[in-house]
């Protein structure tokens, strides 16, 4: 685990916000055909890919 010491609330807010944007929009997900969520959404909207079928 990486720990950070921030100089201000604004600095911490900026770093956390940037990480959340990366994690939720740009990070490659194995469960999304190794695409980022944004890329997967675009490909799905254009019907270039089909979603995985989840069997329960």
Automatic annotation (TrEMBL):
Domain of life per record: Bacteria
Classification via InterPro entries: Integrase_cat-core (IPR001584)
Name of the protein in question: IS3 family transposase
GO biological process: DNA integration
Domain Integrase catalytic: from-to ranges: 4-40
């Amino acid at each position: 685990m990486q720990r950070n010491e921030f100089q201000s609330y604004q600095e911490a807010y900026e770093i956390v916000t940037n990480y959340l944007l990366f994690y939720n929009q740009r990070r490659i997900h194995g469960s999304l055909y190794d695409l980022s969520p944004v890329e997967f959404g675009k490909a799905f909207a254009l019907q270039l890919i089909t979603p995985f079928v989840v069997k329960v």
